[in-house]
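Example record

The entry below shows one chain as it appears in the dataset: sequence first, then structure tokens.
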Amino acid sequence: MSDLASGATSASALRVHALSRPAATDGYAELLGASASLASTFGLMITRAPHGGRPSIESVLTRLKPYLIQVDEVQEWPGTRLADGLTSPRHLYRLSPDSLEMLVSAASSLFDWAFPDLPESLHLLRADGSTVLATVPWHNDAWLELTGPEYETLRRQLPESTWRVTPTRDTTTFPVLTDELLNHLLDLSDRGDPGPWTSYVEDRNHGTGDSFIMVRDGAERGEDIYIDRDGRPASAIDLDLIAAARTYLPVLVKELQRLRSQGARGA
């Protein structure tokens, strides 16, 4: 459906325009229609097994099947990069008036494109693969990546409330906590020195000596950990953060897995 853009788009020519929440919600259909004039394809992510979500996921995938171009495993898509080489399947579709109408009818907000109700992270792409519209639904974040002329065109088509007060920002990639990544984090935790870890900071927790992280306590105490940053002792907040992350990582991961399992059973 790309009417306004043709040929390759230089990444340096694109500016990132953050979208307001009303534009992503109340103005969802209007925003999609305007963005589609620049795009040729759209992508949807399946970061968890579809059968773990609600039937609406499979229903949308079935309705969109006539427009499917390919399914490929990717480590990165607009706004998100998976850690440690993990990948998730991206369904890439041809954008047409009919497939656009399906996107409009399947959701009422850009942020609806999230597990467990729908495939995740709807994004629109130009013919050269560059991003037009990106969403990170679990952060309620959405933006357009536009050239100057494209922005001027869409600004005339869309209400002023579409754009955030700060019109441009840098894109940021957010890690997605897939089931595979959660299992990987638990594996790392299991292979590391068990917690609890406690930060001991000079002049705060003890009077003299270097700051360090104490690994467990009492009869099970392991070797203390001393951390430098560029030849200088790490700050108190660095030590506090590392100790807390090691201690609470398995707790948080297991709680998230429990909640996901509970949600899947209730779907």
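Notes for this example: The mean pLDDT is 86. The longest strand covers residues 68-74.
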